[in-house]
Design a protein that fits this description.
The structure is a single chain. The protein is of the alpha/beta class. It folds into 2 domains: 283 residues, Aconitase, domain 3 (2-Layer Sandwich); 199 residues, Aspartate Aminotransferase, domain 2, CATH 3.40.640. It is 32% helix and 19% strand. It contains 16 helices and 20 strands. The strands form 5 sheets. Strands 14-20-19-18-17-15-16 form a 7-stranded mixed β-sheet, with helices on both faces. Helix 2 crosses helix 5 and helix 6 packs parallel to helix 7. The longest helix is centred in the N-terminal third of the chain and has 16 residues. The chain is elongated, with a radius of gyration of 28 Å. The chain starts with a helix and ends with a helix. 41% of the residues are buried. The mean pLDDT is 89.
Length: 495
């Protein structure tokens, strides 16, 4: 039985005549890659195992990629640990500030990967280098630590999917569209622990950059690796970059594949992945009428208070209602913010009190302010907006419980402001009140005028809400269960 490209490369590096899918092998490595996040863990494992030398200082690459220049003490410590290790063992390919870049672009550019080689990296997108006809795959940091010492690692030989490419891409269509199309066809688990091997006459029409992009996302289909045949495009790219002999491998005519997928490149459209997975691939044309909300997800309103103050700035004067939710006062005090308390009247903050204030940020709860229960009238909402416009101020609209009102939807400050294109209101709400205190999911809507600032000041924050929780909530919303729940509560509260 014949072998695929991947199987031939693995057989060569394992010193075997042939291998088969599912076989466990020990293979020598041409390169071991780590970055500023994964390498420190690998170093810890290396040292805890008692290793005292690396297998080859010229075959280890460390790229300070994600947080260099360093954003904080933790990332600086990570990079320092890598730097110390690289100096200790005189690592040839250590890329720090000034020489580093995106690791998966840097390695091919520097000629560190060649056709027919076997490469592992403590990064799932190490599969990128299959574009050069190499076997490359991501591993855990523990495997990286052992590989830096041993120069080899174990593999289970993957089975393969053959993707037969024909035709030529149309203008403005690229490799990213090809791989999203493929993932849309087979799903994010469609190639689990399989080699995705591209072939066909259409391959010659893809640039090396198309191929790098396609192989980079093989992992998004669950693949062990992606790989392209070595042709004139490949040779032109490695010439002048790779300074060592290399071998091109070809799949045998009778190689066995789990399935064969045909893709006509001429029919591939500009493609985007809609939430929540890459397999939800659609033509970009289909999204022309889909609005994108300016939404930030966080673990309840209290976390979003902090993000809102980071967005708006801590050097401004804030105003809050009196009485108000005690946590607001505590959070503002803890952040060292200047704030004043404005007493509530029967319909909200009285006009004479409001317009005497020099506040630049107005934090209000228009619907049943806690603990007073005061609800701002329609006229008062307009007054709040007028205040914001006249003072060039912003409003934090802290909403909770309005979903239970018998008349839905409630006209919010955010919606009124949006209708006027004012860009003055940030809206906060949480599912902790509507579902359960155990559901720590809140959200913040940001007006378009603040999006550039939001990207700069809070765009790097990761969502603090587990993905599983978000999926569960999304299912409740999509299937209508959440709305039915609200209707039941509304009937009980408003008989």
């Amino acid at each position: 039985m014949g072998m695929t490209m991947t199987q031939k490369i693995l057989a060569k590096h394992a010193g075997l005549e042939s291998v088969r899918a599912g076989q466990l092998i020990q293979a020598k490595l041409d390169l071991v890659l780590g970055n500023d996040i994964t390498t420190p863990v690998a170093i810890n494992e290396f040292e805890s195992a008692g290793f005292e030398k690396v297998f080859d200082k010229s075959r280890i690459a460390m790229v300070m990629d994600h947080f260099a220049p360093n954003k904080d003490i933790k990332s600086a410590t990570q990079c320092k640990q890598c730097r110390t290790f690289a100096r200790r063992f005189d690592i040839d390919h250590f890329y720090d500030v000034g020489t580093m870049g995106i690791e998966h672009a840097l390695l091919p550019e520097q000629g560190l990967v060649a056709p027919g080689e076997a490469v592992i990296g403590a990064d799932s997108h190490t599969c990128t280098y299959g574009a050069l006809g190499a076997f490359s795959t991501g591993v855990g940091s523990t495997d990286m630590g052992a590989a830096m010492a041993a120069g080899e690692t174990w593999f289970k030989v993957p089975s393969a999917i053959k993707v037969n490419l024909t035709g030529k891409l149309r203008p403005f269509v690229s490799g990213k569209d090809v791989i999203l199309t493929l993932i849309g066809m087979i799903g994010v688990d469609g190639a689990r622990y399989q080699s995705i091997e591209f072939s066909g006459e259409g391959v010659k029409n893809l640039t090396i950059y198309d191929r790098l992009t396609i192989c980079n996302m093989a992992i998004e289909a669950g693949g062990k690796n992606g790989i392209f045949p070595v042709d004139d495009v490949t040779r032109a790219y490695v010439e002048g970059r790779v300074d060592r002999p290399w071998t091109a491998f070809e799949a045998d005519p009778d190689a066995e594949y789990e399935r064969v997928i045909d893709i006509d490149l001429g029919k591939v459209d500009c493609t985007v992945a809609w939430p929540h997975l890459p397999e939800n691939a659609h033509s970009a044309r289909e999204g022309s009428d889909i609005a994108i909300d300016q939404i930030v997800i966080g673990s309840g309103a209290e976390q979003l208070y902090n993000l809102a103050t980071i967005l708006l700035g801590k050097d401004r004067l804030y105003a809050i209602e009196k009485p108000s939710y005690e946590k607001i006062r505590q959070i503002y005090k803890a952040q060292g913010l200047r704030f004043e308390e404005l007493p509530l009247g029967n319909e909200g903050i009285p006009d004479e009190v409001l317009f005497k204030s020099h506040a630049e940020i107005l934090h209000v709860t228009p619907y049943r302010s806690y603990p007073s229960g005061v609800t701002a009238s329609a006229e008062k909402k307009q007054t709040y907006l007028s205040f914001a416009r006249s003072r060039n101020a912003f409003i934090l609209e802290d909403d909770f419980g309005s979903e239970f009102h018998r008349m839905r939807p409630i006209e919010t400050l955010f919606s009124l402001d949006a209708a006027e294109k004012g860009g003055r209101v940030i809206y906060l709400n949480t599912f902790s009140k509507t579902l359960s205190p155990a559901v720590r999911i809140g959200y913040m809507l940001i007006p378009p005028s603040l999006l550039p600032m939001a990207e700069k000041r809070i765009g790097f924050f990761s969502s603090s809400v587990p993905v599983l929780d978000q999926y569960a909530l999304a299912e409740l919303l999509n299937e209508g269960s959440f709305e039915r729940h609200l209707n039941r509560i509304r009937r009980k509260l408003n008989p």
